[in-house]
Specification:
With 238 residues, this protein is α+β, with helices and mostly antiparallel strands. It has helices at 19-32, 95-112, 123-136, 147-159, 162-177, 180-185, 197-209, 212-225; strands at 6-7, 15-16, 37-40, 43-48, 51-59, 66-74, 85-89, 121-122, 188-189, 192-193, 233-234, 236-237. Strands 3, 4, 5, 6, 7 and 11 form a six-stranded mixed sheet that branches. A two-stranded antiparallel sheet has the order 1-2. Helix 3 runs antiparallel to helix 4. The longest helix is centred in the middle third of the chain and has 18 residues, at 95-112.
Length: 238
């Protein structure tokens, strides 16, 4: 826990985190997020199957406040960096709030995490996490991107379990075709509506979902590319 609270000088003086404070904050979160392992800076990771779970304390430029952020990246998808999907944002924590809030915020993140941060998981638990996310964004006209829908299908494809692949494809198709705004976004190309745009995207996703060998190959390649072989590993059971 933090001891002395340091305050910047000047007319608009505010509490701020020193280098030593950041080390204390990191140690406090280490204790609360034991299933995750700190990899660099203020980031903690572990992996369940192809899903990389990340807790990041997003410290602002002046070190006056940090925001705990939970996110997930799917290694079945080729990408140059780790993306942040299934995100959970918590309120900012100033130095004079850290001691009283960090344990509560860590507990809430664990409770709300779409993919649980500890233990081996059944594939149905992973499916339930994605479906809970889809329910949470149902009232939003545009969630920003559709990566979570793709990841949901690809993780099920990675298992090579036909019934899970079929289920995931059915769920995604039903959700996206029942939302006129979301559906229409797949039909846009260079600002113009293109007939059949959604069908083209879905057929591409469907083809990849049924190719479990390719998805497993992508996973192995991405694991090495992002140098994640040594983070704590858990299993998806199916």
């Amino acid at each position: 826990m933090l001891g002395e609270i340091h305050v910047s000088e000047g007319k608009y003086s505010e509490p701020f985190y020193t280098k030593e404070d950041k080390s204390i904050v990191a140690n406090d979160w280490d204790e609360e997020m034991k299933p995750l392992r700190r990899r660099r800076g203020l980031s903690w990771f572990n992996r369940v199957g192809p899903l990389v779970l990340d807790l990041y304390l997003n410290m602002n430029a002046f070190s006056r406040i940090y925001y705990p952020e939970y996110s997930v990246h799917d290694l079945c998808r080729e990408f140059e960096c780790l993306t942040a999907t299934l995100r959970i944002h918590r309120g900012g924590i100033k130095p004079n709030q850290h001691n009283e809030r960090y344990m509560k915020e860590a507990r809430l993140i664990k409770e709300k995490a779409y993919i649980p941060i500890e233990g081996d998981l059944e594939i149905d638990q992973v499916i339930a996490g994605y479906e809970r996310y889809f329910d949470d964004i149902a009232s939003i006209n545009y969630p920003g991107h559709f990566v979570e829908f793709e990841d949901f299908v690809l993780v099920c494809g990675w298992t090579k379990r036909k019934e899970k692949v079929r289920y995931a494809l059915d769920v995604v198709y039903k959700i996206l075709t029942s939302n006129d705004i979301w559906y229409s976004l797949f039909c846009m190309e260079n600002g113009q509506y293109v007939e059949g745009g959604f069908d083209k995207w879905f057929q591409k996703l469907e083809k990849l979902a049924w190719d479990g060998d390719k998805l497993n190959s992508i996973f192995e390649s991405e694991l090495k590319k992002h140098k994640l072989e040594r983070i704590p590993e858990r299993r998806i059971l199916f």
